[in-house]
Input
Amino acid sequence: MTVVAVGTLAFDSIETPYDRREDALGGSATYFAYAASFFTPVQLVGVVGKDFGAGHLADLQKRGVDTAGVEVADGKSFRWSGRYEADWNTRHTLDTQLNVFEHFDPKVPGDYRTSPYVFLANAAPDIQMKALAQCTGARFTMADTMNLWIDIARDGLLELLRKVDGVVLNDEEARLLTGERHLLRAARKVLELGPRFVVLKKGEHGAFLIGRDVHFALPAYPVDEVIDPTGAGDSFAGGFLGYLASVRNTDPRTLRRAMLYGTVTASYCVEGFSVERIGAIDRSKVESRFNELFSLVSL
Ligand code: AMP
Output
């Protein structure tokens, strides 16, 4: 089953304690599509500027990502820059330039609209809502967000949360959204806002899945070396939802398996800048790390 993904395609400038990159390919939808495409075809909705170049879109197409829903607008692509502290969990956004994204009016192509699986990657909540409204065949929807939108577009975000099945948040976002310091209480408050389940990401400490009928916790896959955590959340979501769509099942046991796949795709993402590592591996590498993680957490 295909997955529709809406979000940013971007140029990122990243500083880590050890290295830096300027104008590397990034964006919430980009990372999601790279990860989900190990499992299932992805239909992408977004906007880029004339500076984006055809190469990045061609690379996505080679992975089975349909980019017909990516509009090329006059102007510059979305740009983001960030800096990580040595603990990797603390990230400072240095600059966000919405550029063509500022006035983006998403148009979901007709042949995407029947897809039952939809991911609203990190983007302005009104863009996420407009896209969701066009996905008339949607049966299982998930959304991601970021502190920026919780701060400046809270009402729109609350409206969106009433409409989606699941939401992915990191610990800081969950606290900011609910005002609750204790993570599990924050998760329960998120459920009161509408979603059926929440995936709470805690960076290198792993992730929780908390829903009305499912509770699950998983450590992160212990990678030898983190190079750049950017995109870990989106790659997690891509592995998670891509797997669910590929097996056409969202029961609690399948959601748990999806947590392992999300953890694995995120682990490959952080092993390189941009999509350098996740774009260089194949499904067999995903499966072998899945098996490793599975035995790590089994009795
Ligand atoms: P993650 O590390 O999973 O939170 O995702 C990072 C990606 O999100 C980067 O590649 C950025 O280009 C993109 N991004 C950063 N800020 C925003 C924002 N406010 N809205 C949408 N995408 C963003």
Observations:
- The pocket of adenosine monophosphate is lined by residues 8, 10, 12, 26-28, 80, 96, 122-123, 146, 148, 230-234 (CB under 6 Å).
- Residues 17 and 87 are 9 Å apart (CA to CA).
